[in-house]
Amino acid sequence: MWDYTDKVKDHFLHPRNVGEIENPDGVGEVGSMACGDALKLMFKLDHQGRITDVKFKTFGCASAIASASALTEMLKGKTIQEAEKITNRDIAEYLGGLPDQKMHCSVLGREALEAAIENYRTGGTAKHKLEGRVVCKCFGVTENEIERVIRENNLHTVEEVTNYTKAGGGCGSCRDDIAAIIGRVRQEMAAEEATATGAAKKMTNIQKIKLIEETIEKEIRPALRMDGGDIELIDVDGNRVIVAFRGMCAGCPVSAFTMKDVVEARLRQFVSEDLIVEELR
Question: What is the mean pLDDT of the chain?
């Protein structure tokens, strides 16, 4: 049974602002009942441009209902500019937190809000359009959405992406693709941070080895163990990092992909962009 906060329970059992608004200024629809969650959000503005009325209809679990209800309360009295700054984390925090496996419900709320604001500004279709390459065909999740939740929520693992988007939670065939996206985005984020704060700090060889070991332990090993695999650091020779796969990863047909897009990507992200990772043969 999910460990819900009292506030989540309250918004689920007594949802606020359920229904529809006649002639709304903005309306957005996201998700689909085929995927398990669907949300329709609509709002009305007063003469000062503030949201004076907001309502929703949803098909989903307790977390989906609570997230939508909370979002409607958060929107009241806000301008469009203020409303569009609300993130999925803001929704979850308003509720006192959501179970990790239910964070996708807060993302659904944020998407519905964005669709409604776009509808208000453009007068176009209210139905949310997928943008970017579809990575998870089971739940219709695109690469753009995966990249966004990684950046906004500082995600590191495929399991976390699944919790926030459902991607990878169906047949599982997209999990390697998701891992590659995580590796790329985390590397980009590290490069952006390094640019913002100046050049990366110079390290002694001992500091480099220690940081490589910490990165393997915290950022790489947990992801591999989810699929029954493991990794061992064999040696560090300058910028060459020699490792060996263990468990299910040893001899895996996609080990070369995992080496490049997971292991090397994360070591370059957290240690140095100059590192080259090789597998001990």
Answer: 89
